[in-house]
Write a structure and sequence with these properties.
Elements (H helix, E strand, L loop, with lengths): L8 H27 L2 H22 L7 H4 L1
Organism: Pseudomonas syringae pv. pisi str. 1704B
Protein name: Putative DMT superfamily transporter inner membrane protein
InterPro entries: EamA_dom (IPR000620)
Length: 71
């Protein structure tokens, strides 16, 4: 007999976030294609992704890069 498996609320939340983010992609692309040039749309996507990654890493305790590290 198979044992019952408890599903974590964190796992359900992660799947819900994945569903919302992935599903909204097509809506944003549809709106973006009608109103923005392709390079601007790509630039905005990379800017948003970079800001989210920077915020996540700072939240995890990774120090910000110094000016010397950028050169």
């Amino acid at each position: 007999m198979p044992q019952s498996v408890r599903v974590s609320p964190l796992l359900i939340g992660a799947f819900l976030a994945l569903y919302l983010i992935w599903g909204s992609t097509y809506l944003v692309i549809r709106i973006g294609v009608e109103s923005w040039p392709p390079l601007m749309m790509a630039g905005v996507r990379f800017l948003i992704a970079g800001c989210l990654m920077y915020g996540f890493l700072r939240f995890r305790g990774v120090p910000a890069p110094t000016w010397r590290a950028w050169t």
